[in-house]
Amino acid sequence: MTQQEIDTLRAQLDEIEEESRKRLYRQMDLLASDVKMDDAQREAFYGKIREELSYMRQTREILKEKLQLTNAAIDEVETRLTEREKREKKRLRLLPAAPTNAQIDYRERKSRHFAQGMTFYKLFWVFFIGCFLGVVLETLYCMVQRGHYESRVGLIYGPFNLVYGIGALALSLALYRFRNRGRVFSFVGGFIVGTVIEYACSWFQEAVFGSTSWDYSNMPYNIHGRVCLLYSLFWGILGILWIKDIYPRMAQWILKIPNRVGKTLTWMLLVFMVFNTAMTGLTALRWTARRHGVPAQNALDAYIDAHYPDERMQKIFANAEFTEDREAREHAQAAQENGA
User: Fold this and answer.
1) Same-domain check for residues 82 and 133
2) Measured by CB atoms within 10 angstroms of the end CB, which terminus of the chain is less buried, N or C?
3) φ, ψ (nearest 5 deg) of residue 181
């Protein structure tokens, strides 16, 4: 838009606003002059004032809506330009620079990819890769922190954990519309979405299986030990990293899946993940039942007891802790502290 066009637009808006304001003030001056009116004239006069007020309110709402759209467009263009400039800067990196979200959008449209945008196919692949990458990263972190390998999987078959997949899915769904916007949107979205997911997953695991995989009771500003402020802040930071760096890389990998096999492969992996999740649920429920002395009731229970005994389940889910065990541990710690 040229400066002349900007000046013309400003003049038009000023003219609309000034004319409406003048009409309203003339009416208010007439009202203040205590001019004699009968009941019908007074009601008609008041009606005109209310009509003018309604018109001004509508004008205000239209201007607010246009202003919001303009602000969003400015933020998006500035963000896309800044991201492009940063990507083009030559500097030492451990990893190649991630493509921008704008580049991903363009490549998906150009190739008419089967997983374009936030379709079912894209969402499944985000979920599937998230299940895998989360386990890999947490396992590496555990090895660095504790100096030994410890299983961090959440399913009985393969290196997958549903919590990470659900987190990746939720972050993508929540932040996709802000992928070309500023980082504040990504931080706030990651903070809220991550906190809700972490709380919901912890509650579900304890309510259904009687166990937990994390406990923040000793952390400040925690809610029932399921979430805490520190990790919610981490989720906010992850929101920025996710939509600006991790998701574009993931989408770039997905783009490499050929269209001719993409949909078929998606459905095959979906069947595998559903079966994997179902078997994990059954073995976990049977693990809980065995702890309460419930004998096998059918052939499936007997099969699970033979192939997934307590020792194997504890090895697979190394950081799982049953509620009664946690309560006993906390009681023992409290008794020890009181005795000290």
Assistant:
1) no
2) C
3) -110, 180
pLDDT of res. 5:
65
Pair 150, 77 in one domain? no
Alpha-carbon distances of 327 from 152, 165, 215, rounded to whole Å: 23, 29, 12
- Residue 68's domain spans which residues? 3-88
Q: What is the pTM of this model?
A: 0.68
Rounded-to-10 torsion of CA 306, 311, 314, 315: -100
Spell out the alpha helix ranges (H) of the chain: 3-32, 39-88, 101-111, 120-146, 162-175, 183-209, 229-241, 247-255, 259-291, 299-307, 310-316, 323-339
Distances (CA, A) of 108 to 92, 263, 329: 29, 15, 52
For residue 318, being part of any structural domain is answered with yes
Statement to judge: residues 284 and 186 lie in one domain: yes
pLDDT(340) > 60:
no
Q: At 228, is the secondary structure helix, strand, or coil?
A: strand
Helix axes 120-146, 247-255, angle to 10 degrees: 120
Q: What is the rounded average pLDDT of the residues 120-124? A: 96
Number of domains into which the chain is organized = 2
Report how far residue 133's alpha carbon sits from residue 127's, in angstroms, rounded to the nearest whole number.
Answer: 10
